Protein backbone atom coordinates (compact mmCIF):
# COMPACT_ATOMS: atom_id res chain seq x y z
CA UNK A 1 0.00 0.00 0.00
CA UNK A 2 1.07 3.55 -0.44
CA UNK A 3 0.12 6.69 1.33
CA UNK A 4 -1.72 9.52 -0.29
CA UNK A 5 -0.28 12.90 0.54
CA UNK A 6 -2.97 14.79 2.37
CA UNK A 7 -2.57 17.97 0.39
CA UNK A 8 -3.09 16.13 -2.87
CA UNK A 9 -6.35 14.60 -1.72
CA UNK A 10 -7.66 17.89 -0.36
CA UNK A 11 -6.74 19.84 -3.44
CA UNK A 12 -8.38 17.33 -5.69
CA UNK A 13 -11.55 17.16 -3.65
CA UNK A 14 -11.77 20.92 -3.67
CA UNK A 15 -11.55 21.12 -7.41
CA UNK A 16 -13.43 18.02 -8.42
CA UNK A 17 -15.86 15.38 -7.34
CA UNK A 18 -14.98 12.90 -4.63
CA UNK A 19 -14.91 10.12 -7.15
CA UNK A 20 -12.24 11.83 -9.15
CA UNK A 21 -10.20 12.20 -5.98
CA UNK A 22 -10.55 8.51 -5.29
CA UNK A 23 -9.35 7.57 -8.72
CA UNK A 24 -6.62 10.11 -8.36
CA UNK A 25 -5.51 8.95 -4.97
CA UNK A 26 -4.76 5.56 -6.37
CA UNK A 27 -2.25 7.03 -8.77
CA UNK A 28 1.04 7.53 -7.10
CA UNK A 29 4.47 6.24 -6.51
CA UNK A 30 5.49 3.87 -3.84
CA UNK A 31 8.01 6.03 -2.13
CA UNK A 32 5.54 8.39 -0.56
CA UNK A 33 6.52 11.28 -2.78
CA UNK A 34 4.07 13.67 -4.35
CA UNK A 35 1.48 11.90 -6.39
CA UNK A 36 -0.75 12.96 -9.20
CA UNK A 37 -1.05 16.28 -10.86
CA UNK A 38 -0.66 19.79 -9.68
CA UNK A 39 -1.87 22.80 -11.56
CA UNK A 40 -0.67 26.32 -11.28
CA UNK A 41 -2.87 29.21 -10.33
CA UNK A 42 -3.79 29.90 -13.92
CA UNK A 43 -4.92 26.39 -14.61
CA UNK A 44 -6.88 26.25 -11.37
CA UNK A 45 -8.80 29.28 -12.47
CA UNK A 46 -9.61 27.54 -15.70
CA UNK A 47 -10.67 24.42 -13.85
CA UNK A 48 -13.13 26.38 -11.78
CA UNK A 49 -15.05 27.29 -14.87
CA UNK A 50 -15.28 23.83 -16.38
CA UNK A 51 -18.83 23.17 -15.31
CA UNK A 52 -20.17 26.12 -17.15
CA UNK A 53 -18.03 25.82 -20.19
CA UNK A 54 -19.06 22.42 -21.45
CA UNK A 55 -22.82 22.62 -21.79
CA UNK A 56 -22.71 19.83 -24.33
CA UNK A 57 -21.20 17.33 -21.94
CA UNK A 58 -24.58 15.70 -21.29
CA UNK A 59 -24.25 15.62 -17.54
CA UNK A 60 -21.35 13.25 -17.37
CA UNK A 61 -18.26 15.26 -16.63
CA UNK A 62 -15.90 14.68 -13.78
CA UNK A 63 -18.64 13.64 -11.38
CA UNK A 64 -18.95 10.39 -13.26
CA UNK A 65 -15.40 9.46 -12.40
CA UNK A 66 -16.64 7.85 -9.20
CA UNK A 67 -17.73 4.88 -11.21
CA UNK A 68 -14.26 4.13 -12.45
CA UNK A 69 -12.32 1.76 -10.29
CA UNK A 70 -9.46 0.58 -12.41
CA UNK A 71 -7.08 3.36 -11.49
CA UNK A 72 -5.54 1.28 -8.73
CA UNK A 73 -3.59 -0.54 -11.39
CA UNK A 74 -1.65 2.59 -12.13
CA UNK A 75 1.47 3.56 -10.28
CA UNK A 76 3.09 0.23 -9.72
CA UNK A 77 6.43 1.89 -9.50
CA UNK A 78 7.73 -0.26 -12.32
CA UNK A 79 8.43 2.63 -14.67
CA UNK A 80 11.77 4.11 -15.52
CA UNK A 81 14.00 5.90 -13.09
CA UNK A 82 12.07 9.12 -13.57
CA UNK A 83 8.65 7.55 -13.03
CA UNK A 84 6.74 9.05 -10.16
CA UNK A 85 8.78 12.23 -10.09
CA UNK A 86 6.61 15.30 -10.44
CA UNK A 87 7.82 17.55 -13.22
CA UNK A 88 6.53 20.51 -15.20
CA UNK A 89 5.28 20.03 -18.74
CA UNK A 90 3.62 22.04 -21.45
CA UNK A 91 0.89 20.81 -23.75
CA UNK A 92 0.95 22.69 -27.02
CA UNK A 93 -2.07 22.06 -29.19
CA UNK A 94 -3.95 23.31 -32.21
CA UNK A 95 -7.46 22.20 -32.98
CA UNK A 96 -10.01 22.84 -35.68
CA UNK A 97 -11.87 24.10 -33.78
CA UNK A 98 -11.79 23.60 -30.00
CA UNK A 99 -10.14 21.48 -27.32
CA UNK A 100 -9.91 20.89 -23.60
CA UNK A 101 -7.23 18.76 -21.95
CA UNK A 102 -7.07 16.69 -18.78
CA UNK A 103 -4.14 15.06 -17.03
CA UNK A 104 -5.11 12.08 -14.86
CA UNK A 105 -8.64 13.40 -14.76
CA UNK A 106 -7.84 16.99 -13.89
CA UNK A 107 -8.57 19.79 -16.34
CA UNK A 108 -5.32 21.54 -17.26
CA UNK A 109 -6.77 23.96 -19.77
CA UNK A 110 -9.34 24.61 -22.40
CA UNK A 111 -9.43 26.52 -25.62
CA UNK A 112 -9.53 30.26 -25.02
CA UNK A 113 -11.87 30.77 -27.97
CA UNK A 114 -15.38 29.40 -27.32
CA UNK A 115 -16.64 26.60 -29.54
CA UNK A 116 -19.56 28.85 -30.41
CA UNK A 117 -17.14 30.98 -32.44
CA UNK A 118 -17.66 30.12 -36.10
CA UNK A 119 -14.11 30.66 -37.26
CA UNK A 120 -12.10 29.52 -34.28
CA UNK A 121 -8.49 28.84 -35.17
CA UNK A 122 -5.82 29.28 -32.54
CA UNK A 123 -3.08 27.36 -30.79
CA UNK A 124 -2.95 26.88 -27.05
CA UNK A 125 -0.14 26.20 -24.57
CA UNK A 126 -1.10 24.77 -21.20
CA UNK A 127 1.45 24.32 -18.40
CA UNK A 128 0.94 21.60 -15.81
CA UNK A 129 2.74 19.42 -13.32
CA UNK A 130 2.48 15.66 -13.35
CA UNK A 131 4.28 12.52 -12.31
CA UNK A 132 4.85 10.22 -15.30
CA UNK A 133 3.40 8.00 -16.43
CA UNK A 134 0.22 10.02 -16.69
CA UNK A 135 -2.91 9.87 -18.77
CA UNK A 136 -3.50 12.76 -21.14
CA UNK A 137 -7.10 13.06 -22.25
CA UNK A 138 -8.31 15.62 -24.77
CA UNK A 139 -11.75 16.47 -26.09
CA UNK A 140 -11.71 18.03 -29.54
CA UNK A 141 -14.68 19.61 -31.27
CA UNK A 142 -15.23 20.69 -34.82
CA UNK A 143 -17.46 23.75 -34.98
CA UNK A 144 -21.07 22.95 -35.81
CA UNK A 145 -24.03 25.25 -35.79
CA UNK A 146 -26.41 22.62 -34.43
CA UNK A 147 -26.80 18.85 -34.30
CA UNK A 148 -27.19 18.74 -38.07
CA UNK A 149 -23.40 18.97 -38.08
CA UNK A 150 -23.50 21.80 -40.59
CA UNK A 151 -22.14 25.33 -40.48
CA UNK A 152 -23.06 28.56 -42.25
CA UNK A 153 -26.64 27.31 -42.26
CA UNK A 154 -28.97 29.35 -44.43
CA UNK A 155 -26.14 30.96 -46.40
CA UNK A 156 -24.67 30.01 -49.74
CA UNK A 157 -21.76 28.50 -47.80
CA UNK A 158 -23.89 26.00 -45.86
CA UNK A 159 -21.67 22.94 -45.52
CA UNK A 160 -20.21 20.13 -43.46
CA UNK A 161 -17.21 21.60 -41.65
CA UNK A 162 -14.09 19.58 -41.03
CA UNK A 163 -11.94 19.01 -37.96
CA UNK A 164 -8.30 18.32 -37.18
CA UNK A 165 -5.98 18.29 -34.19
CA UNK A 166 -2.27 18.24 -33.37
CA UNK A 167 -0.49 18.31 -30.02
CA UNK A 168 2.81 17.78 -28.29
CA UNK A 169 3.91 17.51 -24.66
CA UNK A 170 7.29 18.93 -23.63
CA UNK A 171 9.26 18.50 -20.42
CA UNK A 172 9.94 22.11 -19.51
CA UNK A 173 13.22 21.56 -17.71
CA UNK A 174 14.87 19.30 -20.25
CA UNK A 175 13.12 20.66 -23.31
CA UNK A 176 12.45 17.11 -24.47
CA UNK A 177 9.25 16.42 -26.37
CA UNK A 178 7.83 13.45 -24.48
CA UNK A 179 4.60 12.88 -26.41
CA UNK A 180 3.12 13.85 -29.77
CA UNK A 181 -0.22 13.27 -31.41
CA UNK A 182 0.12 10.26 -33.67
CA UNK A 183 -1.50 7.01 -34.66
CA UNK A 184 -1.09 5.60 -31.16
CA UNK A 185 -3.71 7.93 -29.69
CA UNK A 186 -7.05 6.28 -29.05
CA UNK A 187 -10.19 8.15 -30.02
CA UNK A 188 -13.91 7.87 -29.41
CA UNK A 189 -16.40 9.78 -31.56
CA UNK A 190 -19.35 11.04 -29.53
CA UNK A 191 -20.90 13.42 -32.07
CA UNK A 192 -21.19 12.42 -35.69
CA UNK A 193 -23.35 14.39 -38.11
CA UNK A 194 -24.61 14.44 -40.67
CA UNK A 195 -24.76 10.68 -41.21
CA UNK A 196 -26.56 11.41 -44.48
CA UNK A 197 -24.32 13.94 -46.21
CA UNK A 198 -26.90 14.47 -48.94
CA UNK A 199 -28.67 16.74 -46.43
CA UNK A 200 -25.85 19.26 -46.81
CA UNK A 201 -27.97 21.47 -49.07
CA UNK A 202 -31.28 20.93 -47.33
CA UNK A 203 -33.42 23.97 -46.57
CA UNK A 204 -34.00 22.70 -43.04
CA UNK A 205 -30.89 20.69 -42.10
CA UNK A 206 -31.94 20.40 -38.45
CA UNK A 207 -34.70 18.06 -39.54
CA UNK A 208 -33.12 16.64 -42.70
CA UNK A 209 -29.77 15.62 -41.24
CA UNK A 210 -29.27 12.54 -39.09
CA UNK A 211 -26.82 12.39 -36.21
CA UNK A 212 -25.23 9.90 -33.84
CA UNK A 213 -24.68 11.57 -30.49
CA UNK A 214 -23.63 10.00 -27.23
CA UNK A 215 -22.57 11.30 -23.83
CA UNK A 216 -18.99 11.33 -22.68
CA UNK A 217 -18.40 7.98 -20.93
CA UNK A 218 -18.13 8.40 -17.18
CA UNK A 219 -14.55 8.84 -16.10
CA UNK A 220 -13.15 8.71 -19.63
CA UNK A 221 -10.30 11.05 -18.75
CA UNK A 222 -8.80 9.14 -15.81
CA UNK A 223 -5.97 6.65 -15.98
CA UNK A 224 -7.89 3.46 -15.22
CA UNK A 225 -10.65 3.96 -17.80
CA UNK A 226 -11.10 1.00 -20.13
CA UNK A 227 -10.40 2.37 -23.61
CA UNK A 228 -9.94 -1.03 -25.23
CA UNK A 229 -12.93 -0.36 -27.47
CA UNK A 230 -11.60 2.95 -28.75
CA UNK A 231 -10.15 3.46 -32.22
CA UNK A 232 -6.62 4.46 -33.15
CA UNK A 233 -6.29 7.94 -34.60
CA UNK A 234 -6.20 8.52 -38.32
CA UNK A 235 -3.27 10.65 -39.47
CA UNK A 236 -3.93 13.46 -41.95
CA UNK A 237 -1.68 15.64 -44.07
CA UNK A 238 -1.55 19.40 -43.79
CA UNK A 239 -3.12 19.49 -47.24
CA UNK A 240 -6.12 17.56 -45.93
CA UNK A 241 -6.64 19.60 -42.77
CA UNK A 242 -5.45 22.98 -44.08
CA UNK A 243 -4.42 24.19 -40.62
CA UNK A 244 -5.07 27.87 -40.10
CA UNK A 245 -4.32 30.63 -37.60
CA UNK A 246 -2.08 29.66 -34.72
CA UNK A 247 -0.73 26.48 -36.26
CA UNK A 248 2.48 28.14 -37.40
CA UNK A 249 3.06 29.69 -33.97
CA UNK A 250 4.15 26.33 -32.56
CA UNK A 251 7.47 24.67 -33.41
CA UNK A 252 5.98 21.22 -34.02
CA UNK A 253 8.16 18.22 -33.42
CA UNK A 254 8.78 16.32 -36.63
CA UNK A 255 6.86 13.34 -35.27
CA UNK A 256 3.73 15.30 -34.32
CA UNK A 257 0.89 14.41 -36.67
CA UNK A 258 -2.42 16.00 -37.50
CA UNK A 259 -5.02 13.49 -36.33
CA UNK A 260 -8.77 12.99 -36.21
CA UNK A 261 -11.17 10.10 -36.45
CA UNK A 262 -11.55 8.28 -39.76
CA UNK A 263 -13.89 11.03 -41.04
CA UNK A 264 -12.76 14.66 -40.91
CA UNK A 265 -16.17 16.05 -41.91
CA UNK A 266 -18.76 13.77 -40.34
CA UNK A 267 -17.21 13.35 -36.89
CA UNK A 268 -17.55 16.53 -34.86
CA UNK A 269 -16.59 15.66 -31.29
CA UNK A 270 -13.77 13.21 -30.59
CA UNK A 271 -12.36 12.17 -27.22
CA UNK A 272 -8.69 11.20 -27.09
CA UNK A 273 -6.58 9.26 -24.64
CA UNK A 274 -2.85 8.55 -24.47
CA UNK A 275 -0.46 7.48 -21.74
CA UNK A 276 2.58 9.73 -21.47
CA UNK A 277 5.55 7.81 -20.17
CA UNK A 278 7.56 10.98 -19.61
CA1 LIG B 1 -18.03 18.48 -39.09
CA1 LIG C 1 -14.00 23.09 -38.47
Write up what this structure looks like.
The protein is an alpha+beta fold and 278 residues long. It has one domain (6-276). Helix content is 14%, strand content 28%. The chain has helices spanning 6-15, 18-25, 41-48, 50-53, 205-208, 238-241, and strands at 87-95, 98-103, 106-110, 122-130, 134-141, 150-151, 159-160, 165-171, 177-180, 186-192, 212-213, 231-232, 234-236, 258-260, 267-276. Strands 2, 3, 5, 10, 11, 12 and 15 form a 7-stranded antiparallel sheet that branches. It has a 4-stranded antiparallel sheet with strand order 4-1-8-9, with no helix packed on it. Strand 6 and strand 7 form a beta hairpin. The two termini are 24 Å apart. Mean pLDDT is 79; it is low at 1-36 and 38-81. The structure holds calcium ion (2 copies). One calcium ion binds next to loops.
Features:
single chain; 278 residues; four-stranded antiparallel β-sheet; 14% helix; 28% strand; globular; disordered N terminus
- Count of individual domains: 1
What is the number of E strands?
15
Major pleated sheet: 7 strands, antiparallel
**Percent in strands:** 25-35%
Give the low-confidence spans: 1-36, 38-81
Overall geometry = globular
The radius of gyration is 19 Å
Please report the distance between the alpha carbons of the first and last residues: 24 Å
Number of helices: 6
Q: Which molecules are bound in this entry?
A: calcium ion
